[in-house]
Amino acid sequence: MNEQKDVAALCAALDALPDDESRLPLLIELLGLDGHQRHEDIVFDLGLIGNPSAIPAIVKAVTAPFPYLEQWGNLHAFQRKCAYALARIGTLESREVLEQLARHSDNHLREYGEEGLSKWPLPFVRR
């Protein structure tokens, strides 16, 4: 099976799961893969779940050059969502990542790191 089919199978498996923490492993795996256009939704969901095991994947994704996000002009919105997901996770490790982003050489990442720090820890209350 080629990578595109693997990604399609992972997306189908994700869609078959209930909207809860059981999705976490697939969300983390898909966040680091090309071949789909769900990165913004995935990082948003990871923030809602708030599990610290997602931090390494978010760290990699925030600086990943996803061509479709650049082409659509959504790269910065995605990076901001990564910062908010880290703020929502609310651990010392996620705060350290936000602090690193706040010192990043990229102006946008620096801004989003600072914004995430201003919200950290970001509580989530289900309605």
Automatic annotation (TrEMBL):
Gene3D superfamilies: Leucine-rich Repeat Variant (1.25.10.10). Pfam families: HEAT_PBS. Coiled coil: none annotated. InterPro entries: ARM-like, ARM-type_fold, PBS_lyase_HEAT. This is HEAT repeat protein. The lineage of its organism: Bacteria, Pseudomonadati, Pseudomonadota, Betaproteobacteria, Burkholderiales.
